[in-house]
Amino acid sequence: MTQKLDNLQAALEAVLGARIRQFKRDRGEITISVAASDWAEVAARLRDDPSLRFEQLIDLCGLDMSSWRDQPWDGARYVVVTHLLSVSLNWRLRVRVAAPDDELPMVPSVTDVWNSANWFEREAFDLYGIIFEGHADLRRLLTDYGFIGHPMRKDFPTTGHVEMRYDEQTRRVIYQPVTIEPRELTPRVVREDNYGGLH
């Protein structure tokens, strides 16, 4: 495994060079970080270079790093993580791309490089609000068309902002402010002397 990772690391460094902002090798896997401005070009090279040949995008997801490990985070708030597979060379790679603007998180779309990125990018847009520049059909995928906000952001309330219900009088679904009152539940502990037949 070590020789295989050595070969992949050497190929990545030769092809991408200074475009690799951070390189991490841990638990038999390689993770590289690249700038959002370089992501489209890096993606094409990862797929097309004969020494890398990452033909498949296996997964792409968004992350909100605002309280990573419940600690303050010093860096970009929104990150896109992509998992790639080279079937022909039998190796994997994880690529991290940070959105440079926390107010309007945006990274280039890689749907022209790997068409499997289409729904993954739509999901990251829907749940985190990350915009994939150049995506041909960037619209919500999992939430309702009228949904406001992005539910996987760490500052999104767990109860949401609105709730929907069917109104018998108007005979349609209506949206209204959330009526759930936040409360703290303390579980009741029941102690029995002979619980489970033990004395």
Oligomer: single chain
| Strand element count | 9
Strand order of the largest sheet: 1-2-5-4-3
Cα separation of the termini: 55 Å
Defining key terms:
alpha/beta, five-stranded mixed beta sheet, extended, single chain, Beta Polymerase, domain 2, 19% helix, two-stranded parallel sheet, 199 residues
Describe this structure in words.
- This protein has 199 residues and is α/β, with parallel strands linked by helices.
- It has one domain (2-144): Beta Polymerase, domain 2 (2-Layer Sandwich), CATH 3.30.460.80.
- It has three helices and nine strands; from the N terminus they run αββαββββαβββ.
- It has helices spanning 2-16, 39-48, 117-128, and strands at residues 20-26, 29-35, 56-64, 78-86, 91-98, 106-108, 131-133, 162-167, 172-177.
- The strands form three sheets. A five-stranded mixed beta sheet has the order 1-2-5-4-3. A two-stranded parallel ribbon has the order 6-7.
- The relative contact order is 0.11.
